[in-house]
Amino acid sequence: MDIPVYLFTGFLDSGKTTFLQTTLEDKRFNNGERTLVLLCEEGECELEPARFSGKNVTIETVDDPSQLTTANMTAWQKKCRAQRVLVEYNGMWQLDDLYRNLPKNWVIYQEMCFADANTYLTYNANMRSLVVDKLQSAQLVVFNRAPKTLDKMALHKIVRGISRRTEIAYEYGEDDVEYDDIEDPLPFDKNAPVIAVGDNDYALWYRDLSEELNTYDGKTVEFLGQVVVDRTIPKNCFIVGRPLMTCCADDIRFAGLVCEWAGADGLKNRDWVRVKATISVQEHPCYGRTGPVLTGLSVEPAPAPAEAVATFY
């Protein structure tokens, strides 16, 4: 039987415990199901079991990410015969510490990120990698304690630079919540005969291609990229892409695509080219799975962009 997991993330004193308390006090949610709560952080607020029906709720305190082993989590769940799990996650821990060890029958049903609207820009400036870690898989981010004068666009850009799918809510006070409705049109036309990807838009296009792969099947695209060739790549084929940075210099990786083109043997590593190609979704040995395979219509030498590394912001 699958065990639904409700995951609450965010930095210290971001409102996770308050939300967890309110959730467990809500009889529509806490209606008697055996529930395991994993508390991975101690803030100013503490859970008050006396305020909710605690007989069906078991709380386990996790002091270190090394405790989040598959064996431990399975044992905790079986000990109380929990039918679901709620996790208040430590904002300073990487989510991979949890994800890679989840028991096979534990399924993330909901992942919410909480943030203090007044301090989030500072966290983003100083702990960007942790901000990215918590936002990239969140279904909803709640910016609480928000003043009415809040610069929503500044927070909106942080979220959208990491995920176009995460919903955004601004909480100004009790029962005063506003959902983000700022439009985010893509900076290229997916329905054009040729999708023209601007030199500064490769990161956004690459992410949209990854998230909405099937919508690109059969489309034609034109973009600037850097060449990768070596002996492991099949004949008449090369890799083209850009170095891509999500949060900081430490996470720069090459975001490349397979391109089949008869003139590939004449290309050299690190050449900059402007590629016009059709996209097909198919298996390819360079991916080892299904992915976007480009068929080159033209591959022309081009000057390098002003910024070689593609970013989302």
Mass-distribution shape: elongated
What composes the largest sheet?
8 strands, mixed
Fraction of residues in β-strands? 25-35%
- CATH-level-2 architecture of the largest domain: 3-Layer(aba) Sandwich
**What is the CA-atom radius of gyration, in angstroms?**
23 Å
Order of helices and strands: EHEEHEHEHHEHEEEHEEEEEE
CATH top level label of the largest domain = Alpha Beta
End-to-end distance: 42 Å
**Number of DSSP-assigned strands:** 15
Strand ordering within the main sheet: 3-2-4-1-5-6-7-8
Instruction: Give me the number of helical elements.
Output: 7
- How many domain modules? 2
Full CATH superfamily name of the largest domain: P-loop containing nucleotide triphosphate hydrolases
Can you tell me the CATH topology of the largest domain?
A: Rossmann fold
Tell me roughly what share of residues is in helical segments.
Answer: 10-25%
Broad structural category: alpha/beta
Which regions contain 5 or more consecutive residues with pLDDT less than 50? Answer: none
- The chain-level mean pLDDT equals 93
Chart the SSEs and their pairings.
Blueprint: E1 3-10, H1 16-25, E2 35-39, E3 57-61, H2 70-80, E4 84-88, H3 96-99, E5 106-116, H4 120-126, H5 128-135, E6 140-144, H6 152-160, E7 167-173, E8 176-179, E9 195-196, H7 202-211, E10 220-228, E11 237-245, E12 253-260, E13 272-284, E14 289-301, E15 310-311
Parallel strand pairs: 1-4, 1-5, 2-3, 2-4, 5-6, 6-7, 9-10, 11-15, 12-14
Antiparallel strand pairs: 7-8, 10-11, 10-13, 11-12, 13-14
